[in-house]
Here is the input.
Amino acid sequence: MNSTTVTPQAIEAEQAVIGGLLRDNGAVDWMGDLRPGHFYRHDHRTIFTEILKQISSGMACDVISVGVALESSVPDALPYLNAMAQSTPSAANIGRHAELVRDRALMRALLGATSELSELALSPNGQTGAQVLDAAQAKLAALAERRSIREPVRASVAMITHIEEIDRRYEKKTSGIPTGFSQIDELLSGGPNRGALVILGARPSMGKTALSLNIALNVARDYSVLFLSQEMQNGELLDRAISALGRVPLGNVITGQLSEPEWQGFTAANARLQELNLHLDDQPALTLLDVRSKARLIKRKHGLDVVALDYLQLMAGEGLNRNQQLEEISRGLKALAKELNIVIFALSQLSRNAANKSRPQLSDLRDCGAIEQDADIVMFVHRDEVDNPQTHLKGLADLFIAKNRQGRIDDVLLSYEGQYTQFSDAKGARPAPQVKRERRGLAAEL
Here is the structure.
């Protein structure tokens, strides 16, 4: 920093906040999440802390009470407090002044972070460039997670807008985002609500990527979708999309050996893809900051309703162990869903214990119990034919909804066509197991 650079500060705004509080203690409710650490001057931090202490205790806080309390820690406290109170006509603009103080504090924090990161880049102490970059992302993410206090709303006031929601429900105009699978949407009261974190768990080869891509293709007809694939490249996702949309066997799409009818299917799939508001990203080892940045970018440029993330355990994170890292990731994804008012579908691997079960449980979510806690909806997909080729459920998949904050917990039967990697609503009743009857008498000898 050169000699002409001035540290970001808003001294007059700090004085106006303090003066306003001394004039009107009730103005403490108008300044949001302003904290002592946001103030640039040390004496202002000390004064503000004392004011909050007195107001919180129910005392009458004024120039005299604060001046007496600080006479040993702040030189000439009484005349300075009096000057600030006199120079502030009223507390009417305290919200704006508090915002200025917070803004300059953020600027100082950014300068401090960039200074630390510059030193780290120059003296990495054995860390790789990727590790330094990850540290930088963590620091910036911490700054980005500043929260402002939202004023609680009276129930009667909130009810005014909620009546409109009830009316939409009566007219069967759901506020959720439909997945395109009728039975799933019915259980989810029309589809996941905005702000929801939806976990789709499965063992390998059960089809969780295929199902999530099918949902993304369905949703992208009417909404904006971002599909983040850490395992498959964009070209592989497009192969699957062409196969599902054009009813062209995936193997033929991959080899390029298409018959005339299949070329027609390819052309139809391409036309449908042109109409979808679907964005693909195949960057591996995403951090939480990466997901935030990409989601915000798409929302700013194209609008955004749904993010599909394939899959949680491939993400990189900060923490002493993998559990802590995934706790931070799942908590951050839930916060991002609420912040951007979107639905996030996050895929998750299941633990090895799930391999011995035909019905996965919430405890089978791999590496982290926080995933279950943060999620609004948890679904598991299971195809019996993966483990039992002779099953009576060939071409079918079970979708178990194990957690649902907005509806019922139940099971859904889906059809699965492997050659097209396509799930769809199952038609008809669930097939009953075939029971081999014992033959007796003369029939047993035939």
